[in-house]
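Retro notes, item 3 of 5
We never archived the inputs for the nicotinamide-adenine-dinucleotide complex last cycle. Fixing that now. Sequence and ligand:
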Amino acid sequence: MVSRIIPVEPFDLVIFGGTGDLARRKILPGLFRRYCDGQVLPGARIIGAARSEHDDTEYRQFAADAIREFGGGRACEDGTLEAFLENLSYVTTDARGTQGWDELASRISNDGRIKAFYFSVGPGLFGDLAERLHSYGMADADCRIVVEKPFGRDLASARTLNATLAAHFNESQIYRIDHYLGKETVQNLMAVRFGNMLFEPLWNSQYVDHIQITVAETVGVGGRGEYYDKSGAMRDMVQNHLMQLLCLIAMEPPAKFDPDAVRDEKLKVIRALDPVEPHHIVRGQYDAHAGQEDAHPSYRDAVENPRSSTESFVALKAHISNWRWAGAPFYLRTGKRLAARSSEITVVFKDTPHNIFGADAGRHRNVLSIRLQPNEGITLGVTIKEPGPGGMRLVDVPLDMSFAEALAPDGEDPPDAYERLIMDVIRGNQTLFMRGDEVEAAWAWTDPIIAGWEARKEFPKPYESGSSGPTDADLLMQRDGRKWRGVSP
Ligand code: NAD
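Structure as it came back at the time:
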C-alpha cells in the first residue's frame, strides 16, 4: 500500500528543551523520519533552545546520536542524515532570564513562514516562555505553541495556566499535546466508528454491555520518581490519556471532522460523566518483585519516600449519564509494574437475546479490541461453528486487522504519534489536541476523587510487581459479573 505523503509548508520550529529526553527520544527522530519521507522539506529551520551551552555543531551531533538511537532504523549513512542536520541550529536560551532571546528572535524569519514553538520543558516554565515570546516580538497572531503534559495538577492550576497562555495566544494557536491521540489506532477508532455503517448502530448501551480501557506498563517509575510521587496514576494517566480515549469511544458523531466539532463532542462526554463512587475505585501501589528487590524495588523505595501514599495503579468504574451510555459502564485501569505492557480498549457487546444452540454451546460475546500497543490493531471476536463433524460446537475467532501487516508490509514501523502530531501543528490542524475547556472539565471530574482520598487519608492497596494489580481491582469487576481482559501474569 503506497501512502500519499504531502509535504508540509516550510516552517521554523523552536524546540524549547531541545536537549531534553523528549527531544532526544521523540521530537528530533520524528522530524528526521518525516524528512526521510519527504514531508519535511529541505529548508525547514529547526532550532534547539535550552539552558545548556552548545553551538550548532554540538547540537547537530546531539541530534545525530539521538536519531541513530531512536530513529527507528532509518538509513542514516546515505547522506540523508547530514542533509537533515543542515536544517538544525541551537541557541542557548534561559526561559527565566534574558540569555538567548535576542538571538532567537533574529533567527526566526519574518518571511511569512509558519512558526511553531514547542514547549518541551517542565510545566513551571510554560508561563515564562509564553511571556518572553511575547515580549521579544515572536508571538504574532500566526504562530503556534505546543504545550507538553502535565497541563496543571488540578482544576485551579490548569485554569491559571490557560489564563497565562491566553494572555498572549488565542486558543487556535495553542496545541496541548496528548500523544495518545496521535496513535494510528486512535485515529482509526474514529475511522472505524464514523466511516462504517457496521458499528455505529450498535454503539450504545442497548447492544454494548460495557467498555474497558486499560493502559498497563511493565516499567516502574524509573528516573521520574520525584515528579511521579507528587502526581500519581490518576493525574499522570487517567485525567489525560485514559480520559481522551474514553471521549473518542463515547462521543456522538461530530457533524464534520473538524477540530472544534470533534472537541465539542468530547467535551460533552466529560461533562456527562457522573462523579465516581468511592467504592467504584481502587488505588494500588506496587511492591518489590519477590527475589529481585534490587532490580525491581518497591514503589516506595523507587521514589525514596517510605510513607508515600501515591498510587501507581488505578482501576475505576465510570458512568456516562446520557441516552447513549446509561447502563453501560466504562471500566478504566492503568498501572505500573504490571504483568504486561498493553494499552487496549475493549468493547464487550451483549449476549444475543436468545441462544438457539442451547446451554452446552456456552456463552459467546462479540468483543471489539482496539490495541494501541504493542502491535497496534483492531480485532473483532466473532462466534463461528468449530470446524469438523463434532456437532454444533461454537468457538470465538478473531477477525484481525493488524496495522503492522496490513499497512506496512515491508515491516517498517508506523509513524510515531509525535511525528503525526508535529506535522498537524505545522498544518494547523488542532483536531488531535486538547482544548482548554476539555482539560479543565477533565480536572473538574478528577479533583473530587483525589480530594476524597486525601480527606479519608486513604493508602493505596499494595500489589505484587508483575501481577495484574491489587485483587480489589478484580473484585470491582467480579461484583458486576465481569472480568478484566488481558494483563494476566
Ligand atoms: P528533561 O528534564 O529531559 O529536559 C528538560 C529540558 O528543559 C532540557 O533541555 C533543559 O535544558 C531545559 N531547561 C530546563 N530549565 C530551563 C530553563 N530555565 N531555560 C531553558 N531551558 C531549560 O525533560 P523531558 O523529559 O524532555 O520533558 C520535557 C517536557 O515534556 C516535560 O513537561 C515533560 O513532562 C513532558 N513529557 C516528557 C515525556 C518524555 O518521554 N520524556 C513524555 C511526555 C511528556
